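Figure 3 (text version): structure tokens given as input.
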């Protein structure tokens, strides 16, 4: 496998789009740079988090601490969203 190096992603230029899956049991955050989705971080109603690295990210490269910061931000936002969804009467509440 050949790996091509690229400039590190400037995380201050990232935008975040909060998305709800077509399936009612998943919520997510798309991490976007220059209109391109780099990562899709999703959480299900059981708080399981998955990260999808878009295969067309054009060799985006993160410094490890920057990637950790991005993932931590996504996790915090998803946990807050999930907390609201599990409140009584909400979509993920236990009936």
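Below: residues designed for each position.
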């Amino acid at each position: 496998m050949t790996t091509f190096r690229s400039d590190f992603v400037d995380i201050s230029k990232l935008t975040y789009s909060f998305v709800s899956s077509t399936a009612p049991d998943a919520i997510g955050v798309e991490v976007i740079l220059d209109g391109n989705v780099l990562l899709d971080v999703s959480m299900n109603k059981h708080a399981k988090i998955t990260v999808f690295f878009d295969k067309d990210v054009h060799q985006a490269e993160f410094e490890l601490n920057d990637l950790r910061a991005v993932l931590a931000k996504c996790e915090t936002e998803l946990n807050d969203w999930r907390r609201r969804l599990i409140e009584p009467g909400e979509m993920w509440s236990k009936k």
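The chain is about 25% helix and 30% strand.
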